[in-house]
Specification:
With about 850 residues, this protein is α+β, with helices and mostly antiparallel strands. The chain is built from 21 helices and 36 strands. The chain has a 24-stranded antiparallel barrel. A two-stranded parallel sheet has the order 1-2. It has a two-stranded parallel sheet with strand order 3-4. About 5% of the residues have low confidence.
Length: about 850
């Protein structure tokens, strides 16, 4: 009896104590202040829960600096921590897949904008059982074979219930299933009809690269002091471009479920007007926006409609892929894939941005897309009427993506005959794509667009063009080379045989999946003077590829052939080099009618005219040994017939999972068919890496790289100084370079990490590069570099990335002279080697709610 009474009393006391305990995950600030702690400690507890995270344990209080162990022990019997499930499903998914969102958020260049679409599907996945072929294939790192395997199963009325069920699908690869799992769900689970808003701020004050800096320094501008006095300067000095000129981007996206989407972005390049000072005309030049609507009908039929700015990609990108960014060896598989069809566009693409309206219909049998656009584009213009001014009556040479924009008036005042011009012409485009899929995994489609212009593109023949590009007769006759036939092959709207105001490009694409092999390709033609209904009588381009996948092996083969005259500004096919490499725009900027024409090469997004075959593979021999991405490319450059070969292979040996030894070898020979040709060069690069995967997902890597480049002698350096000398060329040149790098990643906790590198390199005339977290950096003659990037998940909705880089290096000596016995100091264009120090900050803030 007494024992029972005692138990009842203990239960009552315990119940009273529990009732009096304060739940830190639900208590108000006033309730927390009633605890035996200071007011500051109470506010710190409340702010931690409000701004950082909910408590999962009483011991989380030790994360708060103002609370010591003694305070924790005092609070332990007075508080409780209830299990908290966030009501916001999107925030919960962000927590689960933070590493994927972080990776997508850092994408720039080719995949910028595409990552926005993938991130939306991470937060609000779609039902895999209702997706069509292109919707599945458009997911990151999912192959056409994986997409076909899923649809073949669904065609048998065999729905996919979960990820395990997906992995058991016949024909799907392990990588395809694992990459797809976060972007889809499997059972009917209607998403909450709610509003999602993402805001992103990017700040970047990285200095100009060496090529633009050299370009701006070689300009000559006449500045008047008064009516009788003037002096000569250049763009670099006039606009104080050595000072920090940050690029700032503000982007906000909103969507309602997966149906309504909208976004606005404003991005100013270096020297541009910032958002707070921009008027409406400036916003139109530097800003973009879109409004989109997507609706599903009867399962896997869908309609998408966009107004404003949008991105379009068809086939292999030969007819249409509108981006300002070039990517070498873009196969369309793995990390170089793009989303086929139409999506909203808030990327930094400006010159090739499309602005208007677009619609796309997708069904199991038919895909159709149509778009219209009207926008102003930049171009290189020249004083074709000889009045000394750049007006709308003057002709244009080509589209131009400018590193920085300038008022063309400054070039008129300095008597330039060619100049870059912002919003030089209005481009109106109408185009579309229609595809039919007779069986799962197979389709054939046609694409076309017509662009009309309010000014003429006129490109003269080589005999006149050389003097237009290089006003000095000595330069025009001595430096205009065979490679410059690529410039003469640019498209004209007015010639001796026709006068038109348009450019038409059309073609067809195809794809079929046979077991574990996918075969695809695209053929395109630029209408010049041939018959629209006859193939092969106009400049053309062709890409044909096959992709075979196994669980531990893939084989990729690709053939491309682009005519020299195939000048489609919206073509983004596979190639080794971008358009205008090794032309006067690349090599002889100082001799051009305007050095800023070098931007035609520096920012070119088109592929160079090539014909070649490319093979790529990856094979995992066993758990310890893997042949990583390995490829060989054999091609011929159309402009001068130069034949080249490039090979890269990498072995990865892992005696244990956490330790990796990698050996990579790269070789490239240009003009391999003629060792006596001046264009010959042989490059060898050997890289060794030791990578250790440490606890808490930390990483430490040591890399050493050795390069050597062999080149034949320069005849001007060995022959007699006067023309007509009979001394034969002899000897050769071999350059060496070294590179040492330490990479690291350290996680302080689940929300904060740092990654970076320490680098030392010695160039000796050989170009080095470093792939940083979100960008590639081409470095100078020799030096050291340090960079680190902090990634902080401040809260479930707020992410911060801060990157700092400092680089000390020597610039490469640059000189141009006619003969070997002309001393560099007496040359008109000579830049000595100088020591430079560069510091840069990149800041990215993402707010998602």
């Amino acid at each position: 009896m007494k024992k029972g009474i005692g138990i009842i009393i203990l239960v009552l006391i315990f119940s009273w104590l529990v009732a009096e305990q304060i739940d830190l995950n639900e208590a108000t600030l006033e309730e927390i202040k009633k605890l035996p702690i200071t007011e500051k400690q109470a506010e710190d507890i409340y702010n931690y829960r409000f701004y950082i995270d909910y408590f999962s344990s009483i011991y989380d209080l030790r994360e708060i600096p103002s609370l010591d162990q003694r305070t924790l022990l005092k609070l332990k019997p007075l508080v409780k921590i209830s299990h908290y499930e966030p009501d916001d499903e999107a925030a919960q998914r962000r927590e689960e897949i933070y590493y994927l969102i972080e990776r997508l958020g850092s994408n720039e260049g080719l995949q910028e904008g595409i990552s926005d679409v993938w991130e939306d599907y991470l937060i609000t996945p779609r039902n895999l059982n209702y997706l069509n072929f292109e919707e599945i294939r458009n997911m990151p790192n999912v192959s056409p074979i994986d997409a076909a395997a899923i649809l073949k199963r669904l065609a048998l009325n065999d729905t996919i219930a979960d990820y395990r069920d997906l992995r058991n699908t016949t024909g799907i690869s392990y990588y395809g299933a694992s990459n797809l799992r976060h972007y889809v769900y499997y059972k009917e689970k209607p998403h909450e009809k709610r509003l999602y808003i993402d805001y992103q701020l990017k700040y970047n004050d990285t200095p100009y690269r060496e090529e633009p800096e050299e370009m701006y320094k070689t300009t000559e501008l006449e500045v008047e002091v008064d009516s009788t006095t003037s002096y000569i300067t250049n763009l670099w000095q006039k606009y104080h471009m050595e000072e920090t000129e940050p690029e700032v981007m503000n982007k906000i996206r909103a969507r309602y479920g997966n149906q309504w989407k909208a976004g606005v972005v404003y991005s100013n390049k270096k020297g541009g007007t910032n958002l707070l000072e921009a008027d409406m005309d400036t916003f139109k030049r530097n800003g973009k926006y879109f409004l989109g609507y997507q609706k599903r009908f009867n399962g896997n039929n869908s309609l998408k409609v966009f107004a404003g700015n949008y991105r379009v990609t068809f086939g292999e990108g030969l007819v249409m892929e509108n981006t300002d960014f070039y990517s070498s060896r873009k196969t369309g598989f793995g990390f170089s894939k793009t989303i086929k069809g139409v999506i909203g566009d808030l990327s930094r693409t400006k010159e090739y941005a499309l602005h208007g309206a677009a619609a796309e219909w997708r069904s199991p049998k038919f895909n159709a897309a149509m778009f219209i656009s009207s926008d102003y584009k930049d171009a290189v213009v020249y004083d074709s009427n000889g009045d000394g001014l750049f007006t709308d009556d003057d002709n244009m040479l080509a589209y131009l993506t400018q590193t920085r924009s300038f008022d063309s008036d400054i070039f008129e005042e300095s008597n330039y005959t060619m100049a870059p011009e912002e919003d030089a012409f209005q481009e109106n485009i109408i185009g579309g794509h229609l595809a039919y899929s007779p069986i799962i995994g197979s389709s054939i489609g046609v694409s076309a667009y017509e662009a009309t212009y309010d000014r003429d593109f006129v490109v003269y023949g080589p005999d006149s063009l050389r003097y237009l590009l290089m006003p000095d007769p000595a330069d025009a006759e001595g430096k205009y080379k065979m490679m410059d036939s690529e410039i003469a092959a640019l498209y004209s709207t007015k010639t001796d045989t026709y006068d038109r105001n348009y450019r038409r490009v059309y073609g067809f694409d195809w794809r079929t999946v046979l077991n574990n092999t996918s075969i695809q390709g695209e053929y395109a033609e630029l209408e010049v003077d041939g018959n629209m209904w006859k193939l092969g009588d106009d400049p053309k381009a062709l890409v044909l590829s096959s992709y075979t996948q196994f669980d531990n092996l893939y084989l990729l083969s690709l053939y491309r052939n682009y005519d020299l005259n195939f000048d489609n500004p919206y073509s983004r096919g596979f190639s080794e080099h971008q358009k205008f490499e090794d032309t006067a725009f690349d090599k002889y900027g100082h001799t051009l009618a305007n050095p800023l024409m070098r931007d035609l090469y520096i920012n070119s997004a088109q592929a160079q005219a090539e014909e070649g075959v490319y093979f790529e593979t990856r094979y995992q021999f066993n758990r310890m040994l893997t042949l990583n991405r390995t490829y060989v490319d054999i091609w011929e450059r159309k402009a001068d017939g130069r034949k080249s070969v490039r090979f890269q292979g990498e072995l990865d040996f892992r005696p244990i999972y956490d330790l990796s030894f990698r050996l990579k070898y790269k070789h490239q020979t240009n003009r391999y068919d003629d060792d006596a040709d001046r264009g010959v060069s042989k490059t060898n690069e050997t890289t060794g890496k030791i990578r250790a995967y440490l606890s808490n997902f930390d990483l430490l890597e040591l890399e050493y790289r050795y390069l050597n480049v062999w080149q034949p002698p320069y005849t001007y350096l060995t022959n007699d100084p006067e023309p007509g000398g009979d001394t034969i060329a002899q000897g050769s040149m071999l350059s060496h370079a070294d590179y040492i790098c330490v990479d690291y990643t350290h996680h302080f906790n689940d929300n904060l990490k740092v990654q970076g590198s320490f680098i030392y390199w010695d160039g000796n005339g050989v170009s080095h590069w470093d792939w940083e977290d979100v960008e590639i950096d081409f470095m100078g003659e020799g030096g050291t570099k340090l960079w680190f990037s902090l990634h902080d998940k401040i809260s479930n909705n707020l992410y911060l990335t801060l990157k700092y880089k400092t680089k000390r290096y020597k610039t490469q000596e640059v000189e141009w002279r006619a003969w070997w016995n002309e001393l560099p100091e007496s040359g008109e264009y000579y830049f000595k080697t100088v020591d430079k120090t560069e510091n840069a900050i990149r800041l990215q803030l993402d707010w998602k709610f």
